[in-house]
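input
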Amino acid sequence: MRLTHVPGLSGRKTLLAMATALPLLTTAGSSLATDIDVVGLFPGKAILVVDGAVPKTYSVGATINGDSKLVEADRESATIIINGKRQVLTIGQAVHHSAASSSNSVVLRVGDNGHFIARAVINGVSVNMLVDTGASLIALPASDALKIGLKYKEGRPGRANTAGGLVETYLVKIDTIKVGDVELHQVEASVIEKGLTVPLLGMSFLNRMDMRREGDQMTLTKRF
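output
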């Protein structure tokens, strides 16, 4: 297995702060998009934040936004149907979906720490990712892989060399990853068991993009 570069453990505080920051991202071209975050769960009801608005309580059967509908809810999870696809979310998880778009570009803006953060959607689940050209693959902490629903231990085991030493990894394939309107399928990723706190948007995604930086903006344009 190809080794994946992972930031040293000394950078954890910076990475943790970046993980909680809102990503600065705009799409080249226009499309309708919806973010649905689950912030509360009750039998037959869910408290949702839609596109950053004030939290609102929805009952089972209610339309959330356009083609989104809450179909099941209990104290453990909420089931939402979006474009005919079922998404099961627990508290703290979110789902993002966009209308069809012909755009193949996305513009990222640099954050306060001088790094680019992208809000990606992996298999329908929103994940904040640090753009890292030093990572040979997309790299995911095991906790994030579980939230996404990846059965990563069925992947190919290996090891990665980090500042903290060798760590266990698993090579997996991501069915779908979207950043803005840029969507890729069957992308290799490495799930890191220990030592990684922030998902990395590495070269298995970036090497399929033309990357252009101008000041505090980076434009990613899909090549293939």
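quick obs: Confidence is low (pLDDT under 50) at residues 1-32.
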